Amino acid sequence: MAEKMSMKEQAKPLALPSPAIHPTAVDEEEAVGGGASRFRSLGKRRRALCCCCSCCGATTVVLGVVLLVLFLTVFKVKDPTLTMNSLTIDSFNLDLSSPPNNPVSANVTLTADISIKNPNAASFRFGSSATEFYYEGATVGVAYAPAGRVGADRTVRMNVTVDVLADQLASRPDAGSTILSGGDLNLTTHTDIAGRVSVLGIYKRHIKIAMNCSVVLQVSLTSANTTSTTCDGNVN
């Protein structure tokens, strides 16, 4: 009986070690392989992130350089030009029945053809303006022009009409004698136009244009006409 029990105990197989406590070689290899795979994946993500950041930075730099070049060349604000194209006499009326102290009185209506040239790649907006006429330092007439807009690389022409103030002109003794004898009346004009150029709504420049002109009117008892007009302009 004892011999049978001994033989059964010898025939009983030995218990295998628990994988949870004693991992096999296969499990260790899988664990090592999984860690290496995660490390490689993390490295790829870092390289992709660095590449993306580099591309974004390079794109930003390129765009900045392009905008800088555009603002220094194409979008650089240039000075608009104000020109007196012509000055014509629409009407000339002579009154010889004036009081003795003013032997002659003349009513003159002038039309000034003025143009504004905008050489910029952005529009030029300007407010209402005035053109003043002077004779020997005294104001003899004022012409008004409405506000407006000049498109990019465009020219706008305006016609302004002024009635020369007869009493102001007649109050100058030499004006009456010049008209009676026939001669030249030397007038001067002054025009101010204030406006603004806005580039892409980012850069805005306020501009003031001034123009001074010397006008020679040849007058007589029967007619009057302009013989010369010389202008000089400046921009602030």
From TrEMBL:
Q: Does the keyword Transmembrane apply?
A: yes
Q: Which residues cross the membrane?
A: 48-75
Q: InterPro entries, from UniProt?
A: Lea14-like_2, LEA_2
Q: Per its UniProt record, what Gene3D superfamilies does this chain match?
A: 2.60.40.1820
The protein, known as: Late embryogenesis abundant protein LEA-2 subgroup domain-containing protein
Look up keyword Transmembrane helix and say if it applies. Answer: yes
Keyword terms: Membrane, Transmembrane, Transmembrane helix
SUPFAM superfamilies, alphabetized: LEA14-like
Q: Where does the record place the Late embryogenesis abundant protein LEA-2 subgroup domain? A: 114-214
Pfam families given in the database record = LEA_2 (PF03168)
Q: Can you name the source organism?
A: Ananas comosus var. bracteatus
